[in-house]
Amino acid sequence: MTSQQFALALAMCLTGLMAGIFFTWSNAVKPGIGQLSDLEYLKSFQSMNRVILNPSFKTLFIGAIVSTVIVPICYFNSSQKYIFWFVLIAFLIYWLGVFIITVLGNIPLNEILDKSNLEGMSVKELQHLRVSIERKWNNYNLIRSISSVVTFLLLMTSTFYQ
After folding, report:
1. Distance (Å) of CA 4 to CA 9, 36, 86, 145
2. What keywords would UniProt list here (predicted)?
C-alpha cells in the first residue's frame, strides 16, 4: 500500500465513521428526544452535547478534517487525474458541509444551550429556547449528514480508478 492509498483509506474510514455519527443523530437521536417535553428535550440534548466532546469523538472529527486535506495533496501530481478531482471535490464538500457548518452553525447553538440554566427557566423561556435551537440544529446536522455521506462516496469511488 502506498502512502497515497493509505491516506485515501484513512480519509475514507474517518469520513465514513463521521457520516454514521451524523446520520444516527439525524435518524434516531434527535427524532427520539424530539418526542420529549421542552425541559426533557433541552436537558437531554444538553447532556448529550457535553458527553460527545470526548477524546474518541474529537479524534474522529479532527482526523476526518485533516485527512480530507491530506488526500488531495497526496494526489496533486499523480498521473491519475480522476482520483485527484474526486478527492479535491470530496475535500471541498467535507470542509464546507461539515467543518464550516459545524463551526458556524451547530457549535454556536450548542454553546447557547450549554450556557442555559434550564432548571431556572420558565415554561415559556424553555419553549422559546427549544424553538430557537431545534430546527436550525437539525437542519445543520442534515447538511453535515449529506455532506459526509457524499464525501465518503466520492472517496470510495476514487478507489475504482487506482
Report:
1. 9, 47, 14, 26
2. Membrane, Transmembrane, Transmembrane helix
